[in-house]
Specification:
Shape: globular
Largest sheet: 7 strands, mixed
Number of helices: 8
Strand content: 25-35%
CATH architecture: 4-Layer Sandwich
CATH topology: Metallo-beta-lactamase, Chain A
CATH class: Alpha Beta
Number of strands: 12
Order of helices and strands: EEEHHEHEHEHEEEEEHHEH
CATH superfamily: Ribonuclease Z/Hydroxyacylglutathione hydrolase-like
Radius of gyration: 16 Å
Structural class: alpha/beta
Strand order of the largest sheet: 4-1-2-3-5-6-7
Distance between the termini: 6 Å
Helix content: 10-25%
């Protein structure tokens, strides 16, 4: 099993000046190719200013780096994988920077938290209408679920109603915890600041639970949008194995 970190671009948050990476992942086993998250919609690569204005995202922040090279197909191509080969697409949640390429994997089962799958559309961006759910097979997750041996989905609601995190057991790198936005940055655990979450108390509970799992498993945590960590993680075509 291998874990690849995909680079879906850089974004600046106006409120705090924080520059964050937009991560995705590919988990490759002998029998499955599991993509995790999809980055911004592809039109952001062509016209990031216009796209952000159209979505109302321009009051929140701005895209700093996002080209065709940061879209799912190009990121997967670095490791010799085509979108058509992806067997499952796991959405940690359905905000705009995670769900923009939801229709890019035509043969994949879409795995998503049940609380978000039951919505008429993905969450996308507050006040804005996101894409429709693609015509695809779905697996709606209610609670912790083993997706495959070595890949466990963890129900971590709070940042969003149906947020999922992943625990991946690798043969050499050991346990890797993909926190998603359940823990955006390491300092959220010390500050307890989960402002902006859909449910702050649930977000805090989920983050503390993930931290406990990481301690028990000796897991390396990859946070959702940690500026300090983003420069240090191995990015495709490098991998954790």
């Amino acid at each position: 099993m291998r874990l690849y970190v995909l680079d879906y671009g850089l974004f600046e948050v106006f409120e705090n000046g924080r520059v964050i990476g937009i991560p995705g992942f590919l988990i490759a086993t002998e029998t499955h190719l599991i993509a995790v998250d999809t980055g911004f919609p592809p039109r952001y690569a062509a016209d990031p200013v216009g796209a952000a204005q159209a979505d109302g995202l321009d009051t929140f922040g701005r895209v700093l780096a996002l080209s065709e090279a940061n879209l799912p197909a190009a990121q997967l191509a670095q490791v010799g994988v085509a979108p058509e080969q992806v067997t499952q697409l796991v959405l940690t949640h359905t905000h705009i920077d995670h769900v923009g390429g939801i229709d890019a994997f035509p043969n994949a089962t879409i795995v998503v938290g049940a609380a978000e799958r039951h919505l008429e559309r993905p969450l996308y961006w507050p006040g804005e209408s996101g894409p429709e759910w693609p015509n695809a097979r779905y697996l709606a997750i209610e609670s912790d679920t083993q997706l495959l041996p070595g890949v466990t989905l963890l129900a971590t609601p709070g940042h969003s109603p149906g947020h999922l995190s992943l625990l991946v057991e690798l043969p050499q790198s050991g346990s890797m915890l993909l926190a998603g936005d359940a823990i955006n940055r390491a300092d959220e655990l010390t500050s307890g600041d989960f402002g902006g979450a859909w449910d702050v108390e649930q977000a805090r509970t989920s983050a503390e639970r993930l931290a406990q799992i990481a301690r028990e498993r000796g897991a390396q945590v990859i946070y959702g949008h940690d500026p300090a960590q983003w420069d240090m993680v191995r990015k495709a075509p490098a991998f954790y194995g």
